[in-house]
Design brief:
Layout (H helix, E strand, L loop, with lengths): L9 H20 L3 H23 L5 H28 L6 H84 L10 H46 L4 H24 L3 H13 L11 H33 L14 H7 L5 H32 L4 H4 L2 H33 L3
Helix pairs in contact: 1-10, 2-3, 2-4, 2-10, 3-4, 3-10, 4-5, 4-6, 4-8, 4-9, 4-10, 5-6, 5-7, 5-8, 7-8
Length: 426
C-alpha cells in the first residue's frame, strides 16, 4: 500500500468494494433487526405463558399475574440477551474475546432452553403428549388384562386333569363293585376309599367349573373399561377433564384385573393335590376271611399308590400354571403436559424443534453477522482512512469543515468586535 503511494491494487479494490457492499446491506438490515428480534421474543413469551398456565393448578388472579410476569421476564431476557450478542460478538477482533462470547452464547442458549423452550414445547404439544401417556397406559392395562385372563384360563384347563383323575377312580370303584379289582364283589372297604376320592375330585371339578362364568364376565367388563378408556384418549375436549374420567375407568379396570387374578384355580388344585393322598380315611377291613382281608389290604395299598401318582400329576400341572409370569401391576399416574412433553420427547421432535428454534434462531443471526463483519474487516485490512472514504463520507467531511470554518469565522468576528470596543470605548 505504501509502495504504491495511495494507489490500490485490483485485489484490494475488490475487497474494498465487497466491504462497502456488505456495510450497505448491514445498514439496511439494522433497520428492522431489532423489531424482528422483538417479535420473536414476544412470540416465545406467549407460548411460555401458555406452558406456565398449564402447570399452575389455581386459575385465580394470582396465578394469572404470575404466568404473565414470568412470560414477560422471558421475553425481555431473550430480547436483551440476543441484542447484546448481536452487537458485541461480531465486533470482537481477538480470538480470546470471540471464544469468550461464543461460550457465553452457548451458556445463554442453554439457559433460554431451560426457562422457555420446554414450556413452549408444552404449549405446542402438551395435549398430544398427555394423550400419548393415556394411550400407553391403555396399552399397559390391555396387556395386564389379557395376561390375567390367560392365566385364569390356564387354571381352568386343570379341570380336565381333575376330570380324568375322577373318572379313573370311578372306573376303579365300578371294578371293585363287580369284584374284578380285589376279587370280592360289593361295596366294601376298597370301594369306599375309591368313591371317597372320586367325590373329592368331583367337588373340586365343580368348583373349577363355577369359576368359568365369573372369568368370562370379568374379562368382558375389563374390555368394556378398556373401550371407554380408548374413547377418552381420542375424544374431543380438554385433556385435563378427560384425564379425570380416564383415572376413574383405570381404577375400575385395576379391580377387574385383581379379580381375574383371584379367579385362578391353580392354587386350589395345588392344595387339593397335596391333600389327595394324605386325607385318606382308611376303613376297617370287612372281609369274611383273612385271605379276603389280605386282598383288600393289598388293593388299598395299590389305591394309595395310584392316589400318590395322581397327586404328583395334578401338582405338576398346577405348578406349571403357578409358574406363569403374573401380569405387571399397572396403575395410571396423572401427568402434566410439561412433564408429558419431556417424557415422550422422542415422539414430538417437530414440536421440540419449533419450540427451541423460536428461542435460538437469533443465534444464527449472531454468527451470520460475525462472519459478515469479519469479511468487512478483511476487505479493509491494511488500508488507510483515505482509501476507505466514500463520496458520501467525503461530502459529510466537507460539510463538517464548512461548519467548522463558519463557526470559527463567527468567533473571529466576535473577538474582533470586542477588541475594537476595548480600544475605542467611545
Amino acid at each position: 500500500m505504501t509502495e504504491n503511494k495511495g494507489r490500490l491494487t485490483a485485489e484490494e479494490a475488490k475487497g474494498l468494494r465487497t466491504a462497502k457492499e456488505l456495510e450497505t446491506h448491514l445498514a439496511w438490515l439494522d433497520t428492522f433487526t431489532p423489531a424482528a428480534l422483538g417479535v420473536l421474543a414476544i412470540a416465545s413469551g406467549i407460548y411460555t405463558y401458555l406452558g406456565v398456565s398449564s402447570l399452575l393448578e389455581d386459575n385465580g388472579a394470582v396465578s394469572f399475574f404470575a404466568a404473565v410476569a414470568y412470560s414477560i421476564a422471558v421475553s425481555v431476557g431473550i430480547f436483551v440477551f440476543w441484542s447484546y450478542m448481536l452487537r458485541l460478538l461480531p465486533s470482537m477482533r481477538t480470538a480470546s474475546g470471540f471464544i469468550g462470547l461464543t461460550v457465553s452464547t452457548i451458556v445463554g442458549s442453554v439457559a433460554i432452553i431451560a426457562m422457555s423452550s420446554w414450556l413452549n414445547a408444552a404449549a405446542l404439544a402438551g395435549s398430544a403428549a398427555v394423550e400419548q401417556h393415556l394411550e400407553n397406559t391403555v396399552r399397559d392395562y390391555q396387556a395386564a388384562l389379557e395376561q390375567a385372563h390367560d392365566i385364569a384360563l390356564s387354571g381352568q384347563a386343570l379341570g380336565r386333569e381333575v376330570e380324568r383323575a375322577r373318572q379313573s377312580f370311578e372306573e376303579l370303584a365300578e371294578l371293585e363293585q363287580s369284584g374284578d379289582l380285589s376279587g370280592t364283589a360289593g361295596r366294601g372297604a376298597v370301594f369306599r376309599v375309591l368313591t371317597q376320592k372320586a367325590e373329592e375330585l368331583r367337588n373340586l371339578e365343580d368348583q373349577i367349573a363355577a369359576q368359568q362364568p365369573l372369568i368370562e364376565e370379568a374379562f368382558q367388563q375389563g374390555n368394556e373399561n378398556l373401550a371407554r378408556m380408548r374413547e377418552l384418549t381420542v375424544a374431543p375436549g380438554p385433556v385435563d377433564q378427560r384425564s379425570v374420567q380416564f383415572s376413574e375407568e383405570s381404577v375400575k379396570l385395576a379391580g377387574v384385573i385383581s379379580r381375574l387374578n383371584q379367579y385362578s384355580v391353580a392354587p386350589l388344585v395345588a392344595r387339593a393335590a397335596e391333600d389327595l393322598p394324605s386325607s385318606v380315611v382308611l376303613p376297617e377291613l370287612d372281609g369274611r376271611s383273612s385271605d379276603v382281608r389280605d386282598a383288600q389290604s393289598s388293593t388299598i395299598n395299590s389305591v394309595l399308590n395310584a392316589l400318590d401318582q395322581r397327586s404328583r400329576t395334578l401338582r405338576n400341572a398346577a405348578d406349571e400354571v403357578l409358574g406363569l409370569e403374573p401380569p405387571i401391576e399397572t396403575a395410571y399416574n396423572p401427568i402434566s403436559s410439561a412433564d408429558a412433553v419431556i417424557k415422550y420427547a422422542q415422539n414430538f421432535v417437530p414440536s421440540w424443534a419449533g419450540a427451541i428454534a423460536i428461542d435460538l434462531l437469533p443465534a444464527v443471526l449472531v454468527f451470520v453477522l460475525a462472519i459478515t463483519q469479519a469479511a468487512i474487516r478483511s476487505g479493509k485490512d491494511g488500508m488507510s482512512i483515505e482509501d476507505t472514504l466514500t463520496l458520501s463520507d467525503l461530502r459529510a467531511a466537507m460539510n463538517a469543515m464548512k461548519d467548522v470554518e463558519a463557526t470559527m469565522g463567527v468567533a473571529d468576528a466576535a473577538i474582533l468586535k470586542r477588541t475594537t470596543i476595548e480600544k475605542d470605548p467611545s
